[in-house]
Amino acid sequence: MNIGMVLDNEFFGDMRVENEVISLTEAGFNVSVVCFDHKKGEDHIAEYHGAKIIKIHLDLWRKKKMKGLTNFIIDPYTWYWSKQIVKFVKENNIDVLHVHDLFLLGAALNANKRLSNRCKIVSDLHENYPAALRHYRFANTFPGNILISVPKWERTEKKWTKKADYIITVIEEAVTRYKKLGVKNISVVANYVNRDLFTSAPDSEDLKNRFKDNFSALYVGGFDHHRGLESAVEAVPAIIQQIPNFKLILVGKGINLGELQERAKALNISDHVAFEGWQSPTLLPSYIKASDICLIPHLKTEHTDHTIPHKLFQYMLLKRPVLATNCNPIERIIRETQSGEIYASNDSKSFTEKIITLYNDPELRDKMGINGNRAVQENYNWEMTAKNLISLYKEIETSYFSS
Asked: Hey, which of 163, 271, 332, 379 has its CA 20 to 30 A from 197?
């Protein structure tokens, strides 16, 4: 059976998609991926664990402009991707379209209609996209606040997901939500960590040495207001009164990076906040090992209550205690595994108190780290959740070839 994945980002560095490709090819399926390449000037084909990766060149600026019009009256992005998917299916004899994220599902459904519904459609939904739009800056500033309608996206999500043959989501909390929308055939393939792949790169001694004299708290990921990084930066002045060698390490990039840097300067704490920028995934384990505490400061919203970040399980795997906000899935897992502390969303005072508590109790930190690692080894690893992915595709294969 030929599986065709559709991704509107660059392939390499997307850990979820990489993990899915590895698992499906190892299970004996033929996998092709069509995705973007924003850096190079021409289309080309690569190979990854036996899968064919078809890269379409489109500059990032043009992609963002077209993507912002998805689900609008004029929708060039859906039209563009429908055309690409039709070509992709025909040239690679695709049986199943595995489409990542809600905003590409409409294009896949449209393309499949043009192909006389020859493909089964699997919709891989990484997040509650309509709820996320309430917090993404591009959807709340001009012209996005004029072009993007969250209520329309809520209606569209219900319509499109009901038309998909199968739904994949990242956490159990999201299953309950989709069932309320009337969606069926839902599987959970969580953002658990691929232990071997994540730890395959050698450690960086430079990072270890840079932060060895600090008590450091690390965040890895995107920068946007819903990530809650403002509360962490605001807490630093109070923390350094109790922990003079404290360092907040922020790895990543995003739309509010400049604002966070300016706030750190205004608070006179620039020496205590390390803005590391985007880093290669191969360096992330070294950053985690160089830290004492790892952070997930996401704001608690309808969006973050129905998704789960990779970083939680990466932190746990490498035996670091996790300090996170009370987003439903994150809180549930941390409390069940006793792998960290929970603080109130967007509460700098609560954040400060938890940091100081963990600083003063190294035995507790060690215990939480051991608990987290044990939980990942036993349950929260990619190999465990990949069983759901393989089971789904074996079910599709059986029904496809028996029809």
From this structure: 332
